[in-house]
Amino acid sequence: MILDIVKIGNSKGVRLPKSLLDGITSSKVIAERKGDLIILRPSDPRDGWEKQIKKVLAEEKNRDAGNLPEFEEITNEFDEEEWTW
Predict the structure, then answer these.
(1) CA 60: distance to chain centroid?
(2) pLDDT grade, residue 13 (50/70/90)?
(3) Which of 49, 31, 48 is nearest to 40 (CA)?
(4) Which segments of 1-85 are extended strands (E)?
(5) For residue 68, pLDDT beyond 70
(6) Is the pTM of this model over 0.90?
(7) Are 16 and 3 in contact (CB under 8 A)?
(8) Count of C-beta atoms within a 10 Å radius of residue 16
(9) 9 SS3 class
């Protein structure tokens, strides 16, 4: 993706398209320069995790974890043979 460098006040900047920022929950980033590269990463890599975990738990709240037929179909010799202790 090629982006234009634009004047912003007395500085210069790059406008990031919405499609590039979709899914980013943090309002701050850390910018690092490595040679010709500029690397942007979240200031807190775990930002938003609590909200996402609570959402998953709420969605799975009524699911019966003991009733997973897809795992009942999986068998192997190890489970079928008598074990030697």
Answers:
(1) 19
(2) very high
(3) 31
(4) 5-8, 11-14, 29-34, 37-42
(5) no
(6) no
(7) yes
(8) 13
(9) coil
